[in-house]
Amino acid sequence: MTHRVLTIAALSLLVTFAAAGAAKADCEGDLFQLENAYKAPNLSADAKAALDAARTKALAALKKDDDAACHKAVTEGLSKAGLPMN
Asked: Would you say 57 and 69 are in contact if contact means Cβ atoms under 8 Å apart?
């Protein structure tokens, strides 16, 4: 019985860490896409400013482990720059 309880506790802890890692990976993927947006041809000054603001917000959200805010910042930045979100 004790072995089963320890196994369940270990598995639940593992799932918690995996979920936290997945959230950070999503934000990192969004940031990677944002960095690639700088390579777009004919990027205007306004578009570059929108990407810069989005990067600042997304990095702050990454530090707080706030995946939703990170994704929102990247999506808004790409939208303002006139670029699609993949």
From this structure: yes
Q: What is the pLDDT of residues 64-79, one digit of tens each?
A: 999 999 999 999 999 9
**Domains in the chain: how many in total?**
1
Does any domain span residue 32? yes
Contacts of 1-9 with C-beta under 8 Å, sequence gap 24+, read: none
Q: Is residue 26 exposed (0-12), middle (13-18) or buried (19+ Cβ within 10 Å)? A: middle
- For residue 34, tell me if it sits in a domain: yes
Domain that holds residue 49: 22-86
What is the reported pTM?
0.69
pLDDT over 90 (residue 59) = yes
